[in-house]
Structure formats: C-alpha cells, structure tokens
Amino acid sequence: MENKQTILIVDDALINVLVLSACLEDTYNIIYTTSSRECLKLANTKPLPDLILLDIIMPEIDGHEVLRQLKINSKTRPIPVIFVTQKDLIEDEEMGLEMGAADYITKPFNLPVVQARVDTHSTLKAHSDLLKKLVSEQSAKVRKYEKEYKRLFNK
Question: 52, 78, 80, 103: least buried by Cβ within 10 Å?
C-alpha cells in the first residue's frame, strides 16, 4: 500500500473542498472540513496532516486566527499552511506570508498551479521530516558513544 501524505482542506464552501479534493486525491490522502474549529481539532489528531489548505474568510474563526493558533502550538507549528482565498490584494498576501503561511493561492483556482504548489510544499515537508529524523537518530548515537566513552575512560 502506498504511503501518501495527508492534506487537510479547510473551506466553508463545500464546492471548493470538492474541487480541491478532486485535483489532489490521486496523489494525496485528503481530509477536509468546512469548520475552522474542526480544522484545529483535525490538525492536532494523529496522524497529523502533512499540509493544510486553509481559506481565510471563514464564519467562526477566520483563517488568520487559525494560522496563529497553529503556529503557537508546538505540535502543529511544523505543518505548512497554504492560504486559499478570494483576498487577492498584495497586502493580503504579504500579511499571510508574514504570519507564517507557506504559500498563498487566490480564487478562482488555477488547478495546475494548486497541484504544483501543493507538490512543492509536500516535498519540502517530507525532506524536512526526514532530516529531523536523521538528526535525531545521529544525536542518539552520539549520546550513546559519549556515554560509553565516559564509562571506559572514567570521564
């Protein structure tokens, strides 16, 4: 069985969720919600999503606040978030990127662009996860060898 990355799509308009899902489902596992509050729950549920596509204009909690909450939580901070929104002013995009969004896609969707950006950020996330794993494994080996060295040489 393939080990696909998981994309969480968050948009209050179900049609947008369905369009994005159809674009990405061949390559990724898709989970979705039309609720900001549910997004925060799903983002904290194992297995954690590898990437979040998040609308900014949401009825309960706007996407900016959702992103802020994701970035202050150590568990969800590493998850890349791509804003997908109708807010198409340069200032909106700058604000989103300054807040920590990995990318910014405006509606209406250009599906090849969506696919390319999701692929890029998914690849970056996979490489980052692999590097963290390798560093952790090597650090554990170094600690083991340091402990053995100290035991052997009483240092």
Answer: 78
Distance between first and last Cα of the chain: 49
Nearest one of 23, 59, 24, 19 to 38, comparing CA atoms: 59
The pLDDT, as a whole number, for residue 149 is: 83
Instruction: Record the pTM.
Output: 0.88
What distance in Å separates the CA atoms of residue 27 and residue 19, rounded to the nearest whole number?
14
How much is the pLDDT for 84? 96
CB contact at 8 A, 81 and 70: yes
Residues of the chain below pLDDT 70 = 1-2, 155
Give pLDDT, residue 1: 45
- What are the tokens at 11? 């948009």
Cβ proximity of 42 and 33 under 8 Å: yes
Contact 104, 81 (CB under 8 A): no
- Alpha carbon dihedral 102, 106, 107, 113, in 10-degree steps, equals -70
